[in-house]
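Hi V.,

Quick status before I head out on leave. The structure for the redesign project is tokenized and pasted below; the design run finished overnight.
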């Protein structure tokens, strides 16, 4: 089964900036796109969850005791009760009814089909920002305390334990992706401001040594002396993608790279420049990246002299050779930042972000989903999304977890 992953935002400086941003924003409703599409901004009252709507109930009362409030919105986003004080940063569904989430508080949470519970506390040194699984009992979580591997006879009995990795231990792993239990990539790095430079670390798992595999091996072809990896994702057909930061003229700038299937090295992902500021044409940083299919990849971040929000959308080129053609979209500088993507097709992608941003791309426009179940808007920061189908996926964020389902209940 092919797996596409959402992007996880982990860059420290952009994170701090987002945390300081106001959630009281308004935006012009429509923005022209270079490729002919439009953006219906989440600030548009005609498309936003902020507009007062008559939400029909489904007979279920909210768990908070408000019997007048339904569990699910008109767009089928069902609210669940998250343990108090848990700010969720990553999510992964196993496709068999169990969903996992990780939090800024260093905890692993498990949804068993009925409720969320704290499954295991992993670290007190820093938050957890990403999670990836290759099966219901084979789950990987990078933490500041090291890479954790969850194994067990069932989801409920899973135990997470640290894994020893080769390479520079001072470069923490920040993201894991793979195509199966014996083909996994782990990547990370850090910033060295006293040099200054960025240092990256990429390791590859090719199976247990005792079963004829090579175990975890350092990828010597990765330019580790110049790129700090912040996120990794991919698919068996399109290969491994990463984004991160490198030092340029004593400042960090965004960089994206790709390793094609079967390749022995990396190629640069050259996204379109900002035409208005040639000197500062490249991305200042990336916030999210993901494949929505083998033919469609998304990146979000900031670029240009004013570091305004941007989208980069890559679609597979007709020229072949696995190349992608890129469209550049410069958004309004007050647009809510997109920090996560998830999708299942070129014309079926979701983005999540600041101040309740949950928007869908249908190939023509981004449209904010209705997530509210009361007259009050959902203003939480959303960080990640993942699922198994367009009618079975999760969106998680600060003290919130929404399950999109047509079943009428979480």
């Amino acid at each position: 089964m092919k797996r596409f992953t959402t992007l996880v935002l982990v860059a420290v400086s952009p994170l701090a900036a987002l945390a300081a941003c106001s959630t009281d924003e308004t935006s012009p409703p429509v923005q022209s796109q270079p490729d002919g599409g439009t953006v219906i901004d989440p600030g548009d009252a005609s498309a936003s969850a902020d507009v007062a709507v008559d939400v029909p109930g489904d007979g279920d009362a909210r768990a908070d005791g408000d019997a007048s409030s339904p569990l699910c919105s008109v767009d089928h986003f069902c609210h669940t009760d998250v343990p108090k004080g848990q700010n969720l940063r990553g999510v992964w569904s196993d496709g068999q009814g169990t969903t996992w989430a990780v939090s800024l508080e260093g905890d692993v949470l498990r949804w068993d089909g009925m409720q969320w519970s704290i499954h295991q506390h992993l670290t007190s040194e820093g938050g957890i920002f990403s999670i990836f699984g290759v099966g219901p009992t084979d789950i990987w979580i990078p933490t500041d305390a090291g890479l954790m591997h969850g194994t067990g006879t069932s989801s409920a009995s899973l135990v997470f334990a640290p894994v020893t990795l080769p390479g520079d231990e001072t470069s923490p792993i920040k993201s894991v992706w793979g195509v199966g239990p014996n083909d996994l990539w782990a990547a990370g790095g850090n910033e060295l401001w006293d040099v200054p430079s960025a240092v990256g670390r990429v390791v590859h798992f090719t199976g247990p040594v005792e079963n004829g595999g090579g175990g975890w091996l350092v990828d010597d072809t990765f330019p580790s002396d110049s790129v700090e990896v912040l996120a990794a994702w991919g698919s068996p057909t399109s290969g491994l993608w990463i984004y991160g930061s490198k030092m340029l003229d004593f400042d960090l700038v965004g960089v994206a790279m790709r390793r094609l299937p079967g390749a022995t090295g990396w190629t640069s992902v050259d996204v379109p420049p900002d035409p208005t500021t040639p000197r500062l044409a490249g991305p200042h940083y990336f916030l999210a990246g993901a494949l929505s299919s083998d033919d469609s990849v998304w990146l979000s971040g900031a670029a240009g002299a004013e570091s305004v929000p941007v989208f980069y959308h890559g679609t597979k080129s007709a020229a072949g050779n696995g190349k992608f053609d890129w469209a550049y979209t410069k958004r309004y500088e007050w647009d809510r930042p997109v920090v996560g993507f998830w999708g299942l097709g070129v014309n079926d992608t979701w983005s999540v972000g600041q101040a309740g941003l949950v928007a869908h791309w249908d190939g023509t426009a981004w449209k904010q989903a209705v997530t509210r179940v009361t007259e009050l808007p959902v203003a939480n920061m959303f960080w990640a999304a993942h699922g198994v189908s367009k009618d079975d996926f999760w969106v998680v964020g600060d003290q919130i977890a929404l399950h999109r389902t047509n079943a009428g209940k979480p």
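Above is the designed sequence. The radius of gyration is 20 Å.

G. will cover questions while I'm gone.

Best,
W.
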